[in-house]
Amino acid sequence: MGITGIAAIGAGIAVLGAGLGIGRIGSSAMDAMARQPEAASKIQTGMIISAALIEGVALFGVVVGLLQG
Amino acid sequence: MLNTTLKALVWMVVLLLSAPVFSSSSEEGEKVDVTEMIMHHIKDAHEWHILSYTDGNDVKQHVSVPLPIILIDGGLKVFSSKRLYHEGETIEIITPEGKKDHYIANSELGYGIYHENIYKLNSAGLIDFDAEGHSLNAKPYDFSVTKHVFTLFFSSLLLFVLLKAAVKSYKNDGLHPPRGIARFVEPIVVFVRDDIAKANIGEAKYKKFMPFLLTAFFFIWINNMLGLVPIFPGGANLTGDISFTLTLALMTMLITVFSGNKNYWKHIFATPGVPIPLLLIMIPVEVVGVFAKPFALMVRLFANITAGHIIILSLTGIIFTFGSAAWAGLSIPMSLFLLILKLLVAFLQAFIFTMLSALFIGGAVAEEH
Q1: Where is the V-ATPase proteolipid subunit C-like domain (chain A) (predicted)?
Q2: How far apart are the first and last CA of chain A?
Q3: Of B142, B208, B214, B253, which residue has the fewest beta carbons closer than 10 angstroms?
């Protein structure tokens, strides 16, 4: 339905959002680890958790794209 | 020394990968529909299909593991999937979009299978379709041991055997440290207890929920890993089956709701310090949240694992899309890299599911602060 391939474009946009979000998490995590190396492992745990949560949301979008197209 | 071994290994792999270039090119055959192959691998099936080949007489031979088909249709009917898949007639149809499709009907049994759904055949021994291509025949209650159910049994058995062996080595009056598989399992259990349960539920109440958290963690992890093994008995996409993840998320939701104490319900229906007009909006949102959080758990696990499988299958399918084996030089290393990434995802998704479950349970049993 709609233009052919629009589902794929939708999925791509969802992934774009995820990429931006996780990129920012990674960057602030690295900044924080550089400032305070003793807290590195805690920061890393939090980073992995946030990344997985955001990836979950992005995959919602991909699943909808898959179902539609 | 490791450096030279590594280099030798890499060269060997590269040379092996170029070998198919010299092998004979493909014969005629229809164009392989990669999308259809991928979907077929992701979805559940009533028999475990390992491979097919065309033998010397140009007959397609299938190597597959037959699984029992159990139907409740008036009475209980049990038969092997071999009777349905290999002893029925293949009937070709054209879908409303104009594509060629087929289903297998076994009139002796009275059932036909179309896109892995079992239907009762009508009096002519056929399946009727309506204008959109949906079948009109009745479906019996299908309790078959499908590929995913078989994997469920297999991984449960594996887990049980593994952990029973680990438990046995602790029965020595606590005088010496455990031996064998327990040495591998113990750090993981301690990790789940300290970093997941104690951190989220609290020292006082975590013990009651440890069995569920440990089960969820190990079960999801071992099923994710089994899904990455390319050959029987691995390779079935159980954690990518939405009914499996639905059940797990349902368990989390039931545990959260049934162990919710007064505080928990107060936070949902009468959040302290919120003026009444805002409360009218907050209550529906909070109630939806009770359902939305486990829903997210379900979709997260399902989508992550299914996406991983689709990517790996697509990369392998590159070889078939282009028709020549030389593309293996590109596709195999990429698939290898993604498979390694999927190992990480397997563990990470199990960890995230367990951690979020612990977080929700912790929220349900939290004391007044």
Answers
A1: 7-67
A2: 8
A3: B208
Domain assignment present for residue A11? The answer is no
User: What is the gyration radius of the CA atoms in chain B, in angstroms?
Assistant: 26
B348 near A CB under 8 A? yes
Domain membership of residue A54 as a residue range: 19-68
Please name the residue ranges forming H helices in A1-69.
Answer: 6-35, 40-68
Given B302, B307, B348, which is nearest A52 (Cβ)? Answer: B348
Does the complex come out with an ipTM higher than 0.85? no
The minimal CB distance from A52 to the residues B302, B307, B352 is found for B352
Q: Between residues 164 and 203 of chain B, which touch chain A (CB distance below 8 Å)?
A: 195
Question: What is the distance in angstroms between the Cα of B227 and the nearest Cα belonging to chain A?
Answer: 19
Q: Which of A50, A54, A55 to mutate to test the interface with B (most CBs of B within 10 A)?
A: A55
Is A49 close to B352, i.e. CB distance below 8 A? Answer: yes
- A49/B349 CB distance under 8 A: no
Q: Is residue A58 part of a domain?
A: yes
Q: Please indicate whether, in this complex, the C-beta atoms of A62 and B348 are within 8 angstroms of each other.
A: no
**Contact assessment for residue B30 and residue B103, using Cβ atoms and an 8 Å cutoff:** no
pLDDT tens for the 369 residues of chain B, in order: 668 888 877 777 666 554 443 333 334 455 667 777 888 888 888 888 777 777 777 777 777 888 888 888 777 888 887 777 777 777 777 777 777 777 787 777 778 887 778 888 777 767 777 777 677 777 888 888 888 888 999 999 999 998 888 888 777 766 777 777 888 888 899 988 888 888 888 888 888 889 999 999 999 999 999 988 887 777 778 888 888 999 999 999 999 988 888 888 888 887 777 788 888 888 888 889 889 889 988 989 998 898 888 888 888 888 777 777 777 788 888 888 888 888 888 998 999 999 999 988 988 888 776
> Would you call B348 and A53 a contact, using CB atoms and an 8 Å cutoff?
no
Query: B219 — contact with chain A (CB < 8 Å)?
Result: no
Residue A63 forms part of a structural domain: yes
Tell me how far apart the alpha carbons of residues B345 and B348 are, in angstroms, rounded to a whole number: 5
Q: The whole model's pTM is what? A: 0.82
Q: Which of A48, A49, A62 is nearest residue B303 as measured by Cβ atoms?
A: A62
What's the domain count of chain A?
A: 1
DSSP-based three-state secondary structure for B119: strand
**Does any CB of chain B come closer than 8 Å to the CB of residue A12?**
no
Test A52 with B300 for CB contact under 8 angstroms: yes
Question: Among B115, B92, B364, B109, which residue's Cα sits nearest to residue B253?
Answer: B364
